[in-house]
Please model this.
Amino acid sequence: MRRGQMWNAAAPIAAVAIVATSAAAQTKTEGTGAGEWKVLFDGKNLDHWRGYKSDKVPEGWKIVDGTLAKTTPVADIVSRDEFGDFELSIEWKIGAAGNSGIFYRGTEEEDHIYWTGTEYQLLDDEKASDNKTRLTCAGAVYALYPSPPGHLKPVGQWNTTRIVARGPHVEHWLNGFKLVEYEMWSPDWEAKVKASKFVDHPKFGRAKKGHIALQGDHEGELAFRNIRIRELAQQPKLGYDDTPMQPNGKWHIHDGARPQPRIVTPGAMASVAPPSDAIVLIGPGSDLSAWQARDGSAASWVMKDGVVETGKGVIRTKQDFTDFQLHVEFATPDVVKGDGQGRGNSGVILLDAFEIQVLDSYQNPTYPDGQASAMYGQFPPLVNASRQPGAWQAYDIVFTAPRLGQDGTAQKPAVVTVFHNGVLVHHATPFWGPTAHRAIKPYVPANAKGPITLQDHGNPIRYRNIWIRPLKAEDET
Model:
């Protein structure tokens, strides 16, 4: 509202809608090691707040009818406590052309909190001067990551913000909608900081623990209420930061800071019968004659009624292949044991060199290039289409073997397209070389052809209905 208009910080709104939005928004972190909620502002006192580099709350911040309000520019306030991994919930409303922000993980090492803390932008997107770009509109990670429009309530109405920060992963929520999620300290984040005004402030965004702060130094009315926070249990380290960089220079091999693939719920499972020209590698009954151990001895895995379960050591096909269409059905254990790479781990290794990872990736975070259907150590899947533990799943793989010179130099790299449970997860993606743990190997002449290998990783994975169709070049069909 314009100056001179009545602006009641405690004006009532549809309370039922606020409760419903808050409850829906909180479901994501329930049961994930979250602590008890701590009230930072209860409408009665400011015991949990102080000024920046001061023990006193700056003048101008007032408690009005259970809200924390200001009507003119005032100094910022910071939480007395520091927080690292947390979920913050706060309700706010802003006046016409208003501009403010919520800072998190800020320290008092610089002259201002915004040179160290990351900002969740608060703005009147309609009239504020910062509305020229979504990088500085409500909900944005100020100057770094834009927020989508359409979720901010009109001036004078209460908004509900949530900020979820766990290690490098941060989410900005507004009125029940997740606006932004990003990975602090990732190559993408580093590039955005370098391109922003924060480049001249080397301590910006570096702290893993710091104060929550409320910005007050802009013109306009502003009010907060129902400020609460809870600390989140620190997740175990998902990957590595001491491995070599991948050839494109964006991520370390098995980089835990790499964004997790978006979750997609696949359609109903339908087992696909082999076509007439397919070679059946695992069919009905108990026939494992197409397979052998790595040393050439008979395959020792147990097979019954068309289902084989991983045993000691790998098994691989007796026949070598180059280009092919491959169908594989598998199920991870229905009794969940372990986490990360220790949960439902196996692999389908093409030409005994290029692994498509098998893993229980249903609500089981791990380093993204090692999750189910990843091109192991190289590319995560486009999305996570995993089913729940124990359920049958399917990979449909189209593979083109590398074309190599006599010295092993890849004239054309190996290329793969993969569908996981009917959902495309890799689209004609080239391998940088043979896959490996913590490394990417160079191409060698032996990679031009090879068997299909099923990996044993100490977890009881079941396989069934595996068939392959060798492919020829178009001029050979």
